[in-house]
Specification:
Blueprint lengths: L48 H5 L36 E8 L28 E8 L13 E8 L25 H9 L2 E10 L2 E4 L7 E3 L4 E5 L18 E3 L4 E6 L5 E5 L12 H4 L4 H8 L19 H4 L26 E4 L8 E4 L7 E6 L7 E8 L6 E9 L10 H9 L2 E8 L4 E6 L5 H4 L9 H6 L1 H7 L8 E6 L6 E5 L25 E5 L2 E5 L4 E7 L5 E9 L24 E6 L6 E5 L11 E5 L8 E8 L5 E8 L8 E6 L5 E7 L5 E7 L35 E7 L8
Parallel strand pairs: 7-12
Antiparallel strand pairs: 1-32, 2-3, 3-4, 4-5, 4-6, 7-8, 9-10, 10-11, 11-12, 13-14, 14-15, 15-16, 16-17, 17-23, 18-19, 19-22, 20-21, 22-23, 24-25, 25-26, 26-29, 27-28, 30-31, 31-32
Bound molecules: MU-OXO-diiron and calcium ion (3 copies).
The site of one calcium ion (CA) has 5 residues, from loops.
């Protein structure tokens, strides 16, 4: 997310850390040979077939003659209206909003700040989401299309001056200390929800009293799994053995494993912790200080909500990440607590009795989605991941275990997770200027890591916990904020959204700014009213194609976000039209039912013209476009030419706006029924620019959604899941 995008820079820091001051390279050399131009659009997709794609479960990709054409709908215009707009012939309905009851006996949501018991209600800021089919017996059924579970991330909360003000009757307490009753609500609305949904008499709804529903909050008991389990850097007062932690936090992107579990990424967790102003000295300036700084927590850092001031109880004190105790290993305080956040967490959505596990082998950073590459029997599994902060990196995990089809339907799903996600190799991406790339393994066997002067790595667990530092050591490529990634079921290529980056500059003036390079080639100025937005304010999407070896890939820029009217030489390079233009791509999901690539935005740059949106795309493949040179003149008069490769230009048949959300929201998360006839989408933080002082004056709310859509009590805006169906019963996006 890009929280409170209209707020001053310091106000958004909790969600947009900027702690990569490494000297890692950028690239400005000339691109070399390119791949073939063979298109992989509708019509040829079917030739790839399921034999190659194994566990992808690809069904019709719109390629056969009896399938309706994709993107057959009329584009939805850009809009500043306070509604959810979808194409003619489609219906969007609200399904599950902040505060909705999730257990029998929980009172209906009053939505006036007096509600309690949020651990049994929908959390806030609905984000990534996955579908888990249910049979009539209430058990897993992968082909079910009218009954299932939705596992939903609740990323964060709409706040101002510490308080999540829509949760509290008069906006809550905006100074320290925070009352424990307010803190308890705020910790409870974070985490994830699993809810049962069903189509009954033609209408979708969720089941408020289903015994399958459950929540994890910022305080739920969770196991540490993988190489960091039991490590000295995870010892806390709560877990002197370093094997457990409490809670999952700032859950953004998601993933679904081939064995039917839910993966959730912990993104901007660092901002929830505080450190004392003298903590560096308290730690004798040891290497933990280097780690804390690299993950965005300098000494003296204030916490986002002041939860540590809720009282003396452990559940409040754990948010204070300072060294306070006398122990040498941290068993008497929470100096190591932050090392328990920042992972991909595996959850069995079908079984709330199983403890969730933090899969530390997949590294620790600001995680977004976790997408599996081609699943093939007898081969390792690959999981792709991005680290969403300015100038951070793209990663790949490759399992030690080789895939066995028998594991797809194993009864003990978490045990399958142990097998594939606790042991493997972690790689970081280097994008070469010639259109090739290298996955660099992060291991002590690499002299750049074992001999890294900035940080002395002790063991493999140290790399799992301090992944960013290891990636710095090997010279990974700084990207324009890697958000979600998704794998094209037609050909296995990996797409990443790079949402925006204000630090990209042709004239860098500090170590936190860097030149454009081949994979992040734009640095320009966009105007929003009288405000100038510098860097790459509109973002882009890159895509990767794996090579013959585990360490080789090729890549191109699939699409550049831009305003349709922007300069086509340097900004609107993809020549987007008014039906296609977008800014700050974030959520990204490929439909397995249709092959459509859904692109969602979390924007602050183009929001003077349009609310955030979702587009439907039918992409080709890496190398289907052409080279492009961006010619810059620096302030000293020297020239800088950046050569990149841009995908084949979109047409009205391959890119079209499908949805525009209400005011102040981002669009994020998408799950579908296997038949492609219903999609679930999240509307996150409508009305987030509302002032805390106006919390009880609905006439001043930025948004009145979803009450304006007829949903629920009260007028306070609420994050919510919507369900979209086609009125003729067809597949979504046709
Ligand atoms: Fe939660 Fe990076 O979006
Ligand atoms: Ca976002
Ligand atoms: Ca996001
Ligand atoms: Ca503009």
């Amino acid at each position: 997310m890009n929280h409170r995008v209209d707020a001053p820079e310091q106000a958004i820091d909790f969600n947009n850390e900027n702690s990569n001051t490494s000297a890692n390279p950028t690239f400005d050399a000339v691109l070399g040979a390119r791949l073939s131009r063979r298109g992989l659009l509708r019509g040829s997709v079917g030739t790839v077939g399921t034999a190659v794609l194994g566990g992808f479960g690809v069904t019709a990709c719109g390629g056969s003659d009896d399938e309706p054409a994709l993107l057959g709908f009329a584009a939805v215009p850009k809009s500043l209206a306070d509604t959810v707009a979808v194409p003619t012939g489609y219906t969007a309905s609200v399904l599950f909003a902040l505060g909705d009851p999730m257990a029998a006996g929980v009172a209906a949501y009053k939505n006036d700040g007096t509600d309690t018991n949020y651990a049994q209600r929908a959390g806030d800021h609905h984000d990534g989401m996955e579908w888990f089919g249910l049979g009539t017996d209430g058990k897993r059924n992968d082909s079910a299309t009218e009954r299932g579970l939705l596992a939903i991330n609740h990323e964060a909360t709409t706040d101002e001056k510490l308080s999540s003000f829509f949760l509290h009757a008069n906006g809550g307490t905006s100074t320290l200390p925070r009352p424990p009753s307010e803190v308890d609500k705020e910790t409870d609305i974070h985490g994830i929800a699993v809810i049962e949904v069903a189509k009954t008499a033609g209408k979708w709804g969720y089941v408020p009293s289903s015994a399958l529903n459950f929540r994890l909050t910022a305080l739920s008991d969770i196991e540490i799994a993988g190489p960091a389990r039991g490590h000295a850097q995870l010892i806390t007062k709560y877990s002197p053995t370093g094997t457990k932690t409490r809670g999952t936090l700032n859950n953004c992107g998601t993933g679904k494993t081939p064995w039917g579990t839910f993966l959730t990424g912990e993104e901007n967790w660092a901002g929830y912790f505080t450190r004392s102003a003298t903590d560096d000295a308290a730690r004798n300036n040891d290497k933990s200080v280097t780690s804390l700084k690299r993950y965005g927590r300098n000494q003296g850092a204030a916490s986002r909500h002041g939860w540590e001031t809720g009282g003396a109880e452990d559940k409040y004190q754990r948010w204070n990440n300072s060294k306070l105790g006398a122990s040498t290993d941290g068993r008497d305080d929470y100096r190591n607590e932050m090392n328990g956040m920042g992972y991909i967490v595996e959850i069995d959505a079908y079984d709330k009795t199983r403890l969730a596990k933090k899969r530390t082998a997949l590294g620790r950073f600001a995680h977004e989605s976790a997408a599996f590459g081609k699943v093939e029997a007898g081969k390792p599994l690959s999981v792709y991941m991005g680290d969403d902060s300015r100038g951070e990196y793209i990663y790949k995990f490759v399992s030690t275990a080789l895939w066995s089809e028998a594991d797809a339907n194993a009864a003990d799903r978490m045990a399958v997770g142990d097998k594939y996600l606790d042991s493997g190799k972690l790689y970081v991406a280097k994008f070469n200027a010639d259109g090739t790339g290298t996955w660099v393994e992060l291991s002590l066997g690499n002299a750049a890591i074992s001999g890294y002067a900035t940080y002395k790595f002790a063991d493999v667990a140290d790399i799992a916990i301090n992944t960013r530092l290891a990636a710095d050591a090997v010279g990974a490529t700084k990207m324009d904020r890697p958000e979600w990634n998704a794998v094209n079921p037609a050909n296995g290529e990996i797409y990443f959204t790079l949402t925006n980056n204000s630090n990209r500059s042709v004239n860098p003036t500090s170590s936190s700014q860097y030149l454009p390079d081949a994979a992040n080639p734009r640095a320009y100025t966009d105007e929003k009213g009288t405000t100038k937005q510098n860097g790459n304010p509109n973002g882009h999407l890159v895509r990767l194609k794996e090579g013959a070896s585990v360490s080789a890939f090729s890549w191109d820029v699939y699409l550049f976000g831009a305003e349709a009217g922007a300069d086509k030489a340097m900004v609107n390079i993809s020549a987007l039209t008014a039906d296609q233009d977008f800014s700050s791509p974030d959520g990204l999901v490929f439909s397995k039912a249709t092959g459509i690539c859904w692109i969602q935005t979390d924007d602050g740059a183009y929001t003077d013209v349009t609310n955030c949106m979702m587009l439907a795309a039918v992409p080709g493949q890496v190398g289907d476009g052409a080279k492009k040179t961006l010619s810059y003149t620096k302030t000293d008069g020297s020239k800088l030419d950046i050569v990149t490769t841009v995908g084949k230009a979109a047409t009205p048949d391959t890119l079209k706006r499908f949805l525009v959300g209400p005011k102040g929201c981002e669009i994020t998360g998408l799950a579908e029924t296997p038949d492609g006839k219903a999609i679930f989408v999240n509307i996150q933080h409508p009305g987030e620019a509302t002032a805390m002082a106006d919390v009880n004056d609905a006439t001043k709310y930025q948004s009145l959604w979803p009450s304006s859509a007829g949903y629920g009590a009260g007028k306070r805006p609420r994050s919510a899941t919507i369900v979209i169906t086609k009125n003729d019963g067809g597949k979504i996006g046709t």
